[in-house]
Amino acid sequence: MTVKRSIAIRGHRTSISIEDEFWSEFQAIAEDRRQPVAALVAEIDAKRSPAVNLSSAVRLFVLADALRRAAADQ
Question: InterPro entries from the xrefs (predicted)?
């Protein structure tokens, strides 16, 4: 299920629509990095292409992290 989540990054509120499964993984990544979720979203926001919306950028970040971990396990 896709849920709209509000978050503050660099002093302004924004929202991202993201599925629960991606959000759970994203929270786990932030926890592993000992980084607040908002800080990780801000980091992704700063690095993303203007052609990619923030929700998609978060999903792509989670996917890239999963692929990196899978490759490391081989």
Answer: RHH_dom, RHH_sf
CB contact at 8 A, 18 and 5: yes
Tokens found for residue 34: 């000992």
pTM greater than the 0.90 cutoff: yes
Considering only CA atoms, which of 21, 26, 27, 29 is closest in space to residue 2? 21
Q: Distance between alpha carbon 53 and the CA centroid of its chain, in Å?
A: 12
In 3D, which of 36, 34, 32 has the Cα closest to residue 8? 36
Domain ranges of the chain: 2-73
**How far does Cα 37 stand from its chain's mean position?**
8
- Total residues belonging to the chain: 74
pLDDT, residue 1, reads: 86
DSSP state of 18: E
